[in-house]
Design goal:
This protein is an alpha/beta fold. The protein is built from six helices and 13 strands. The protein has a single domain, classed as Rossmann fold (3-Layer(aba) Sandwich), CATH 3.40.50. It is globular and about 60 Å long. The structure holds 1-O-pyrophosphono-5-O-phosphono-alpha-D-ribofuranose and uracil.
């Protein structure tokens, strides 16, 4: 599946601030949340709606609403949690699952350390969050775990994606739509996205 890229001048402006190494933790975290909200709007632009009747201050009328409870947001720890605030702001009643993965610095292979999902994952729409899609290993393993658990409808939201990760993800999980704010040039020899923004987890949590 081809990635859907949120190409927009304001997002480019926000990405410029994220990429700048002088940007501090507070602003970095806020912008990650803002872009995550916008990715969520895009990912749900054709979501199924239910008709219901309400009363405006003027009259009764039929409106269309999402079933918020059917959505599960799944941040990949740690950096994915930086996107969570932005999604909860727009769909506050969604359920939240967590997948703990970190990349082994030498092999670049993801190592699992946590997995917790809400019930009935097979009946829900799952939106996986991670700001960085680099080699694709973490995204692929997280999605495989969700599928083993029964998840059928999965979307993946990232802020910056590398062509290498996009290719691998679409080969292994062709049914999963990727929404990203940007596709960068490549990976460097230690698996970082170029030009990228550095280590997303460290910049969100101020750990370096
Ligand atoms: C980063 C990022 C992704 C992963 C992407 O996490 O948040 O999860 O790397 O790389 P990949 O596509 O090559 O798998 P990291 O392992 O640094 O853990 P952290 O979020 O705890 O900092
Ligand atoms: N993880 C990050 O946080 N940044 C990268 O550039 C690649 C993986």
């Amino acid at each position: 599946m081809e990635p859907i890229v949120l190409s927009n001048s304001l997002i480019k402006h926000k990405l410029a601030i994220l990429r700048d190494k002088r940007t501090g933790t507070k602003e970095f975290r806020e912008i990650i949340g803002e872009i995550a909200s916008l990715l969520c709007y895009k990912a749900l632009e054709n979501a199924e709606l239910q008709k219901t009747e309400i009363e405006t201050p003027i009259c009764k009328t039929e409106v269309e609403k999402l079933d918020e409870n059917k959505y599960v947001f799944v941040p990949i720890l740690r950096a994915g949690t930086g996107m969570l605030d932005g999604l909860i702001k727009v769909i506050p009643n969604a359920k939240i699952g967590h997948i703990g993965l970190y990349r082994n610095e030498k092999t670049l292979k993801p190592v699992k350390y946590y997995y917790k999902m809400p019930s009935n994952i097979q009946d829900r729409e799952v939106i996986v969050l991670d700001p960085m899609l680099a080699t694709g290993g973490s995204a692929i393993d997280a999605i495989s775990m969700l599928k083993e658990d029964g998840a059928k409808k999965i979307k993946f939201l990232s802020i910056i994606s590398a062509p290498e990760g996009i290719k691998k993800l679409s080969e292994v999980h062709p049914d999963v739509q990727l929404y990203t704010a940007c596709i960068d040039k490549s990976l460097n020899d230690v698996g970082y996205i170029v030009p990228g923004l550095g280590d997303a987890g460290d910049r969100i949590f101020g750990t370096k």
